[in-house]
Amino acid sequence: MKVVTIVGARPQFIKAAPVSHFLRQAHREVLVHTGQHYDDAMSAVFFRELAIPEPDYNLGIGSGPHGAQTGQMLSAVEEVLLAEKPDWALVYGDTNSTLAGALAACKLRVPIAHVEAGLRSFNREMPEEHNRVLTDHCADLLFCPTQTAVDNLANEGIRQGVQLVGDTMFDAVRQFRELARERSRILESLGLSPDSYLLATVHRPYNTDAPEQLGIILQAFAEIGEPIVFPVHPRTQRNIAKLSETLHRPAVARNVRMIEPVGYLDMLMLEGNARLILTDSGGMQKEAFWLSVPCVTLRPETEWVETVESGWNRLAWDGVESILEAVRRPWPVEPPPPNFGDGQASRRIVDALASAL
Question: Are residues 204 and 346 both part of a single domain?
């Protein structure tokens, strides 16, 4: 069996790593990196840390407007599929790389498998929502991380090819957490001790590209008052600089420590030792849940409703007070329930791909 795996962004590298491990034990994987995330901190470090083989194709598309970026990826991936003639095109998540890979395969009648199928935020202002919906409606095999995802697909009339396998990011956390403890020195380098800080990430356009909303988030960080470690996405960094110019003063308070983006192992250590996480990242919501760290999601909705239903995740977006209230309200005592599988999702996916042939 030959599988062309198409990835391009930081979360996809994490999702693909455990699947690639099992896939290469008995089959041929051709790895395509679109280049959507391309610098060392957002791309290469993940390949090194997660022991992902070097891409067979690095398309080098880079950043740009959504339409132009997706179009360039679509054309380049099509050439790869024509050359490789795989049994499956395997795509992950909800990025432009996901959609481009699915559309290229669909046009060439190459069977498509979508890992992390069925997620829905029901917010059509998110580019990711369109990407995941369109990809699901192209896919032949739809690998769902949760029962909620299966139900979402059924509500859209998609029942054939749907499999509940669990979450490959959970597989990755289980696989790499001990390695992170052994190798990461991020806590020592930042002078941090467990439970002495909050961890924050902000990258979604509706938080970073709207000065008013970015200002609300940064003001909330200031009023929380506790030390906050803030690995800053490049786009977020640019917009914070613009906001500072508008305000004629630093937009970031002294209790907030801005650092460069970090690799996966360092991020696992920062997450696992934080008192609380503030984020708009889908992946970090889940990682907080699995590591039993309270999470405040800086969004009006989430695809990962199970984390909210358990009480370990709270949505807070509408103003400074909503964020402060979410942070300060008491958190659950009971550990999070096992809603994302048993850590064997990657093995199930590879077995299903082989069986479906």
Answer: no
Write out pLDDT tens, residues 165-185: 999 999 999 999 999 999 999
pLDDT (average), residues 99-123:
97
Residues designated as active site? 203
- Together in a domain, 262 and 129: no
Is 177 within the bounds of a domain?
Answer: no
Q: Are residues 224 and 295 in the same domain?
A: yes
**Mean per-residue pLDDT, 277-306:** 97
Give the pLDDT band of residue 64 (cuts 50, 70, 90): confident
Q: Which pLDDT score is estimated for 55?
A: 94
Same domain assignment for residues 317 and 352: no
Do residues 348 and 313 share a domain? no
Structural domains of the chain, count: 2
Q: Is residue 333 part of a domain?
A: no
Find the domain containing 94 and state its range.
2-167+341-356
Q: What is the pLDDT of residue 38?
A: 54
Q: Over pLDDT 70: what percentage of the chain? A: 98
Q: Give the per-residue SS3 of the chain.
A: CEEEEEECCHHHHHHHHHHHHHHHHHCEEEEEECCCCCCHHHHHHHHHHCCCCCCCEECCCCCCCHHHHHHHHHHHHHHHHHHHCCCEEEEECCCHHHHHHHHHHHHHCCCEEEECCCCCCCCCCCHHHHHHHHHHHHCCEEEECCHHHHHHHHHCCCCCCEEECCCHHHHHHHHHHHHHHHHCCHHHHHCCCCCCCEEEECCCHHHHCCHHHHHHHHHHHHHHCCCEEEECCHHHHHHHHHHHHHHCCCCCCCCEEEECCCCHHHHHHHHHHCCEEEECCHHHHHHHHHCCCCEEECCCCCCCHHHHHCCCEEECCCCHHHHHHHHHCCCCCCCCCCCCCCCCHHHHHHHHHHHHC
pLDDT, residue 353, reads: 98
